[in-house]
């Protein structure tokens, strides 16, 4: 039995140009973002958040489908939503980079990607839905025309459950993408090919992702429960720093993936185009500037706070009603909502 690309498994509605909203999934809530065009410019029409009963989701698994259905029905009723694009929990996603030869003799890249699945993830092709994008190429590898791809895969049983519950709520799923891809789409400017690490803090986890050539090439999550987001890092007199257990875990994982990427790409100089140029921080801790400075000092790479509006409008010409720190919580839902 073969694996399927997303649209092969869940045929999209005929009218893909119909208005759709973005919905990002967190274990404690659903976030909604709806964009529209006004005077030739994309503007944020509305955002919303729907709290989920504790235990509805568990690390990306749907534990109480009836509670999730009620939340989607509320979105359908309150926003008149018929079509949606979802950013699904990162815990269930598999993202990897692979170089493959260009197909010959009637073969397709999809066939080649499907063959690569079992070599890169712990599931068989029959157990997943997948998608991919070309990030580089074609170029010659041992005399063979090849391309570099980024592949994202999701367990098909889990994906089918999301699509089915949405359908019961009167909403058609147009696309499913991992949270890391949604965050990247909101804070990495279109056309920016530099390599950066994204650090997206949520209350129960932190997503770490490497973005290169505009695509997420690697992602992982650090599971934790931030007991007090206000105290993830304490600075006294600008010198003495007390780190929370959660921040230490993120710091250590960040160091690991930095070393993994630099060695995997055989990067020997910061001038290498694929060397990591910066850390971009978003999410849910109050002292975000201090946290980004702390992470920067640990791995000696510049860090900055993300601008979730970079692909929507310029802050020089338009000031959104949402406070800047509050906007950092919306990175995933803005990214998936912009995916038109």
Strand content: 35-45%
DSSP helical segment count: 9
Counted up, domains total 2
CATH homologous superfamily assignment of the largest domain: ATPase, nucleotide binding domain
Can you write the helix and strand succession as a string? EHEEEEEHEEHEEHEHEEEEEHEHEHH
Helix/strand class: alpha/beta
Regions with little confidence, pLDDT below 50 for 5+ residues: none
CATH class of the largest domain: Alpha Beta
How far is the N terminus from the C terminus? 32 Å
Sheet with the most strands: spatial strand order = 4-3-2-7-11
Global outline: globular
- Mean residue pLDDT: 86
Number of strands: 18
What is the CATH architecture annotation of the largest domain? 2-Layer Sandwich
State the helicity in percent bands. 25-40%
Largest sheet: 5 strands, mixed
Radius of gyration based on Cα positions: 20 Å
CATH topology-level fold name of the largest domain: Nucleotidyltransferase, domain 5
Write up what this structure looks like.
It is a single chain. By secondary structure, the chain is an alpha/beta fold. It folds into two domains: 266 residues, 2-Layer Sandwich (Nucleotidyltransferase, domain 5), CATH 3.30.420.40; 61 residues, 2-Layer Sandwich (Dna Ligase, domain 1), CATH 3.30.1490. The chain is 28% helix and 36% strand. The protein has nine helices and 18 strands. The strands form five sheets. The chain has a five-stranded mixed β-sheet with strand order 4-3-2-7-11. Strands 14-13-12-17-18 form a five-stranded mixed β-sheet, with helices on both faces. The chain has a four-stranded mixed β-sheet with strand order 1-9-10-8. Strand 2 and strand 3 form a beta hairpin. Helix 5 packs across helix 9 and helix 6 crosses helix 7. The longest helix is centred in the last third of the chain and has 20 residues. It is globular, with a radius of gyration of 20 Å. The two termini are 32 Å apart. The model has no long low-confidence stretch (mean pLDDT 86).
């Amino acid at each position: 039995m073969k694996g399927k690309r997303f649209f092969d498994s869940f045929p999209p509605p005929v009218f893909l140009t119909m208005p759709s909203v973005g919905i990002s999934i967190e274990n404690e809530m659903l976030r909604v973002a709806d964009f529209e065009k006004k005077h030739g410019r994309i503007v944020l029409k509305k955002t919303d958040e729907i709290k989920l009963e504790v235990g509805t989701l568990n690390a990306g698994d749907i534990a109480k489908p009836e509670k999730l259905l009620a939340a989607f029905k509320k979105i359908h009723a309150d926003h008149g939503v018929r079509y949606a694009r979802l950013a699904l929990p990162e815990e269930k996603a598999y993202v990897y980079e692979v170089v493959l030869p260009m197909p010959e003799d009637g073969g397709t890249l999809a066939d080649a990607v499907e063959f690569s699945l079992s070599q890169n993830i712990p599931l068989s092709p029959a157990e997943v839905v997948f998608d991919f994008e070309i990030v580089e190429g074609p170029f010659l590898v041992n005399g063979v025309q090849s391309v570099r791809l980024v592949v994202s895969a999701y367990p098909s049983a889990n994906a089918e459950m999301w699509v089915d519950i949405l359908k019961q709520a009167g909403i058609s799923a147009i696309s499913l993408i991992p949270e890391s891809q949604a965050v990247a789409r909101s804070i990495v400017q279109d056309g920016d090919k530099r390599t950066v690490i994204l650090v997206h803090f949520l209350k129960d986890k932190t997503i770490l992702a490497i973005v290169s050539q505009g695509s997420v090439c690697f992602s992982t999550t650090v599971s934790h429960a931030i007991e007090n987001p206000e105290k993830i890092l304490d600075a006294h007199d600008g010198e003495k720093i007390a780190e929370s257990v959660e921040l230490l875990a993120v710091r250590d994982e960040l160091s690991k993936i930095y070393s993994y990427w630099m060695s995997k790409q055989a990067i020997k100089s910061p001038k290498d185009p694929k060397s990591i140029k910066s850390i971009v921080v978003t999410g849910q801790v109050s002292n975000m500037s201090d946290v980004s400075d702390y992470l920067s000092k640990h791995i000696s790479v510049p860090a900055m706070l993300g601008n979730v509006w970079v692909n929507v409008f310029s802050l020089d010409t338009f000031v959104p009603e949402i406070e800047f720190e509050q906007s950092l919580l919306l990175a995933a839902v803005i990214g998936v909502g912009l995916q038109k």
